Amino acid sequence: MRKPEESGVDGGPDGSDASFLDSPEIIRCVFHPRRTRPTPEIPGRRHPFFFSVETDVNIDGVIHFAGESASKAPNAPNILFFHGNGETVADYDEIGPLYNEQGINFAVVDYRGYGTSSGSPSYSAMTTDAVCIFPQYLDILKQCCLSGPVFVMGRSLGSSPALDLAVRFQDRISGLILESGFVYTYQLLEKLGVDPRSLDGSRELLVSNLEKMKKVRLPTLLIHGENDEIIPLSDGQALFKAASHRVREILVTPRADHNTLLILGFGEYMKAVSRFVERVRTL
Description:
The protein is an alpha/beta fold. Helix content is about 35%, strand content about 20%. Helix 3 crosses helix 4 and helix 4 (about 160-170) packs parallel to helix 7 (about 210-215). It is globular, with a radius of gyration of 17 Å.
C-alpha cells in the first residue's frame, strides 16, 4: 500500500481545510460512530482492504466485485461510496451485491472510528482522508486489474467527501452520484443540534457543498427523497441546478424521507444508477 499523498490543503471551496469545524460540540453533534466486526472476504466476490491516511490510522473498506469474479468483469464501472452518518461498511454487505447485479464494482469506505477503522472522527479528517483515500483506491483497482470508469458517490454526510474528490480529481473521475446531498454545511450543523452562535458564518463558503458543485464539470446524478426531513428536497434541487455538465439527472422518490429511499424506491433507484453509469460510458 503506498503512502498517502499530500492533501494540498489550501482552504479552498473543495472543503479540504475544515479544521475550524473540529470543535468538540460539532464533532459530538455530527458524528455517531459505531463499531462492527470485520466483513469477511469472499474470494473473487468481496474483498476487504484498508487505506493508510496518517501514521497509525487506517480507514477500512470493502469492494464488492461484479460478475462471477473480479477477473470476469475487468471493464465494469467502479463506484467509490461514502456512506451516511451512523452507518458502516458492514451495513452495505447486502447492498453491495445489488450493485454487482447491475454490472458495477461497488466499494464502500468508513470514516475514522467507524466500523473497524482506527482513529477518531472529525470534519477535517473526513475531508482530508478522502483525498488520501482516492489515489490508493485507484491503486487497488489497478492491482485487481479493474480498468473500467470510476464514479464517486456519497450519501447524506458522505456527499461532502464525494464532492471534495469530484472537485479535486476531475481528470480521473467519470461521474458523480449524490444521494440526499446537502447544500449548506452550517444549515445542516444547526439541524443536527450545533449552536449557531458557535459558527463563523463568514467561513460557510469554504465548506459549502453548493460552492463545490459549482466547480464540478462532471456528469452528475442526484437522488433525493420527496419528504426528506433532515436534508430537504430543495437542497437536492439546488445541487442539480448548480451542476454544469450537459449530463445531469435528478431522481425524486415520492413519499420517501431521509432513511426510506431504498425501501420505497429501490427499483427506480438502482435503474437510475445503472442508466446513468451506462450513459456516461457512451459519452
